[in-house]
Every structure is written in structure tokens, then in C-alpha cells.
Task: structure prediction
Amino acid sequence: MRRAKALRSAWPFSNPRFNNARFNNAHFKQCPFQQRPLQGVRVMRFRAVCAAGAGATAFALAACGGTGSAAAHGTGPAASHGTGPAASHGTGPAASSQAPAQPAAGSAAHPSASWPVFNGNAARTGAVTGLPAAGKLSTAWTARLDGAVYGQPLVIGGMVVAATENDSVYALNEATGHLIWRSHLGTPVPASTLTCGDIDPLGITGTPAYDQANGLVYAVAETTGFHHVLFGLAVTNGAVKVRRDIPAPDGQPRWDQQRPGLAIGSGRVYVAFGGLFGDCGPYRGSVAAVPLPGTGPIISYMVPTAREGGIWGIAGPVTGAGGTLYVSVGNGAATSGAFDDSDSVTALTPGLGRAAIFAPSTWAADNAADLDLGSTQPALLGGGRLLALGKRGTAYLLSAAHLGGVGGQLASLDVCGAWGAAAVSGTTVYEPCRGGGPAAIGVIGGTRIRELWHGPAAVTGSPVVGGGAVWVTGQGGLYELNPATGAVRASIALSGGLPRMSSLSLSGSDAFIGTLAGVTAVRGV
Result:
């Protein structure tokens, strides 16, 4: 018997007074939030009431500030919109048709989101509270899109928004997978024009980000000629509202890859760059920041190494106190002599000035052997702590306020080589180990760390937490793990194939997973 969908919960940094509520119609969501500052970063809290109907034509645009048809009509030659044959959808439970809900007086004009950025929030914790307990897993729907989906799908106002390597962004009905709108933003770069890399074609790889204040979904498309272009799309219909070329901070756009998730804060979209798989070309890692309206100066930070130092972890910049951005930096050119800021956790101000840095005392050897910290994001915990874990396999506990420079960790522990993105729940960090299975690491008293468990050895995706379980992809399936032991409670096979460092999004009773063919929704999480 199908369980009613729980309403989308607030994230761990949201108002603790918020209580989930259920409506008789499972597709209506109440989001009683307001806007207030969190650690210096504006976090959106919503009062909008949004509704989703049975499919594209039934989507309640009126409730989310949109008008007219569900098919998008963008401006300019870079965008092509419609509900044509670019998407093919599998079977799933039909959603009941309902009249659109009207926003309450004084409510926001744009729909709220239960998963607006990579790992659900600016801190990239990947953990959501208030979901119903996990149940029996089943495939709710599968949507075949026009390319592979490497980033996490976003969940916004009854829609699942996903970006493909064919430079398209799709909005799908959350309950059915039916197409609501599609925006095709350009022509991706074929692998034949590159000397290394493992994605073909190379289009939109980094997870987009949604700003509820202006109702725009931001995505960076790589297009022919090696251009990285930031687009801001109206969430209600996919119309292009912002289009801005991002000049490569290192002057080497051919060799730069935009794989990390985008971040929003301090009135800007933050876009991080690393290199292609194989580290070919004279690239250097960087972060660029574009004003949300798309106009005004673009600012940037570039790792001061002679070469490499990519900022390429899939989670993207992590936002902490005062809007500080924490990034993990990959191996650089220096293998002796002066430290070159590579193989590090680097703290950046909102204006992208370097505020602080941590590097292992083994940084030179790490650089020489490609065993750097750049493969996961710094995991931000409460109490002002960060946990950094990379390819070498040593986990470092850091003070977020005082990173400590070279060798300045509070504690360290050999755990596993990790690639992907970590999740954080309370004082536990769940890391995506390449060998030995996902690992749970406990932080004790803010000064010590210990390994709690390892999950199934062959499951190498990036974990998220919700519904009383740890969820992780791998071996062509989705796995439900016991958060206390790492034991497998349930699993389900996924079609379409999974990208490297695969991850997923959670909302209500569903998980949404990007595949090499599109998006799959799994019910029962």
C-alpha cells in the first residue's frame, strides 16, 4: 500500500520551531518559513504554498508566481524550450488533479525548495530531518533525458530540476516524472576536442543552485569553443533571465572543468573550477563569483600554484560562519620547497580573498603522488569543526575559525581514500570511501575522531542521510544503510547506469538519482 508523501522538511539549519504538517492531498506542501541570516549568509525561509498537479499541463504555476503554459519560452538564440521529444518518461503512479493553491497574503512569489543546492543546503550537510521512516523501496518513475545527469537533481515547488551533459535543464513533475519544461542552452564540447577527460560530451556537470528570492535556477554550461556560461532560468517555465560568460580565471578555459556544485551567498553565484580527468593542460584551480542579476564585476580566486591545484570536489564550496567559503584544493606543482597552497582546505571571504588555510605536513609527498585533499569537500560540523578527508586516506579534524596552517590539525586518523561528497548528521560524518565501503567517522568532544563503521565494500557513491537511514548509490543500485552500524537494510537496482561519484537528493518519501540516461525516482526512502 502506497504511503502518503510527507511534506518536505526544513534543513538542519532551519527554524527549530518548524513542524511538518500533512495535507489530505499528498502533492500540496506548506512551507512556513521566513528569511533570516544564518552565520552571516542569507538563508531563504519560505511561506509560499505551492502545488503540483498530475503532469506538465496540471502544474500549478499560478501558485508559484508563473503564468500561462507549462512549456517554456526563453529569449535569445541560446535557449530552446518546449515539451517535445527530448524527454521520454517511464511509468509511475499518477498524481491527482487539483485546483492550484493560492499563496497566503504576504507570501513569497517564488516556490520553495526542499533540495535547492548540492546536498540540500549551503553547508552541504546532505542530511534532512523530519522525513517519514524508510519503507519498502520501489521505482516511482524513470525519465530518460537528452544526456547524462552528473549533478544532484534539485527539488523545487513540486518539480525535480536536473541538468544534462547535453547542456539542457529539465523540470519534471515530482510525483510522476512528466515533463514540465526544458531549456536547451547550447552545444556541449565533444571529448574528441580534448586530450583528456572522462565525460563525453561535456556540458553541464556541476549541480545547479536555486535562489528562491529571485526564482532563478543557476547552471553553468560548457559550450563549444570552451566557453563556460552561467545561465539563470525562471523556475516556473525555464525562460533564460541571466546569461553571462565566465572568463577563465586561469586563462585556460580549454583545460578547466566545472564539476563542483554551484553555491549562492552574499548576492553572488560561486562557481569553482578544476581540471579534466587526467589533469592535462596548464590549468589552475579557481573560484569565480558572479552577481545574481548577471551584471556587474566578476571576482575570482586562483590557487597560487604553478599548475593544477584543482577545486573539483563535486559538492562545491561549503558556506560557514560569516559567509566564509571553504574549498578543498587538489594536488599542485610543488613537490618540495615553498608551500604553494595546494593539497589544502582553503577558507575564502565572500569577496574571495584568502582568509586561512590548512595543509597536511605531507603536502609535498601528497602532491608528488596525487594523494591530495581535493577529492571531497570539507565536512562542516557544529561547534566550529571541519573534517577533511582525501585520497591519501587520512582524516583531519580542523577548527573552522583557525585552520592552523601546515600541520595544524586538531586530530588525525587513517580511515580510507575518499572520492565524492560527505554527509554530516550531528557529530557523525559519512564519507564516500573508494575502497572498504562508506565510512562513518565520529567527532568526540570537538577534539578527537574515531572510525565508527564501514559499509558494503563495493558501494562507492556519495551518501546522504534522512528517514532514519544513510542512503548511498553503488553497483548500479541504491542502498539503505543502518546509520548506527552501516549494515544494509534494503537495496533496489537502478536502470540507466550511474556516473562516477554518484549522489542523490531526498524529498518526502522519495530519492531522486541522476543516471547516465536521465533521472530515476525511488519511493520508500
Q: What stands out?
A: Residues 1-86, 89-107 have pLDDT under 50 and may be disordered. The longest helix spans residues 363-369.
